[in-house]
Design brief:
mainly alpha, two-stranded antiparallel ribbon, 4 helices
Length: 260
């Protein structure tokens, strides 16, 4: 079977050239490829566009009234022909579209695509439902755990409050006992301090008395020592040895002064 190539113009001297896939159902053979923009009407308009560009690129003829009118008439006839060709192209496209609509393979393929899309949406919905059910079950478990933890926390709070009250009572009792012990110890300490103060007063009195006795004894000793020194001096003044020592000391002093 000979392949049909798409004749849609893509340039003034070049066409699409892709292979045209033929339908299996009834209707006349396809002319254009699978590109939806390639059809008879679009081909007619593309040919007209390329032809207009060709006319624009050609050299302008000299101004001739008759020739210009003949050219205008020819252009009008060309436009009528183009309109006829466009209508025929529209009719050809309509026939091709009708043939595509009647193509059972295309209908079956579209139905399969629609069913596949529907199945995919159903699968997504089921998956979303399953996920929602899992999330709901997880939320219920978390709620139950939260309720249980809340009850445990309430019990712990009550126990803590009771323990706090007991601790407050124990601390109060300990403070009262401590206050009594401090008062008792303070009384004992005050009594001992009073005894110590009395002993200090008595000790100061004894110290003053001993000091007076010692000062009196020291005065007597000093007086006795003074008497002894006077006696010794009197005895020494009469001794030859002492006189010799006095003369030697005087000589040493005079020698030192002469040396200086």
């Amino acid at each position: 079977m000979t392949e049909t190539l798409c004749p849609f113009p893509i340039h003034a001297d070049r066409v699409c050239g892709r292979t045209v896939a033929q339908r299996s159902g009834p209707g006349r053979p396809r002319v254009y490829c699978d590109d939806p923009k390639h059809n008879a009407v679009a081909r007619l308009r593309a040919d007209r566009r390329f032809r207009a560009r060709t006319h624009q690129d050609s050299d302008a003829e000299p101004q001739r009234p008759v020739t210009e009118r003949v050219s205008a008439l020819a252009a009008a006839l060309d436009r009528l022909g183009d309109l006829k060709a466009e209508l025929l192209a529209e009719l050809a496209d309509a026939e091709e579209l009708a043939a595509d609509v009647a193509d059972l393979d295309l209908v079956a393929a579209e139905m399969r695509a629609v069913e596949a899309a529907a199945d995919a949406r159903v699968a997504l919905a089921l998956a979303a439902q399953a996920a929602a059910e899992r999330d709901a079950a997880q939320a219920r478990r978390e709620r139950d755990e939260a309720v249980e933890l809340s009850e445990i926390a309430c019990d712990a709070a009550e126990e803590a409050i009771a323990g706090r009250d007991e601790a407050v009572e124990a601390v109060t009792r300990m403070r009262e006992d401590c206050d009594r012990d401090v008062a008792r110890v303070s009384a004992v300490a005050d009594a001992e301090l009073a005894k110590i103060d009395a002993a200090l007063v008595e000790a100061r009195a004894d110290r003053d008395r001993i000091t007076r006795v010692a000062e009196s004894a020291l005065a007597e000793v000093r007086a006795h020592c003074a008497d002894n020194h006077r006696l010794v001096d009197a005895i020494g003044a009469r001794s030859p040895v002492r006189q010799h020592r006095a003369r030697a000391t005087g000589q040493r002093r005079r020698a030192a002064r002469r040396a200086a």
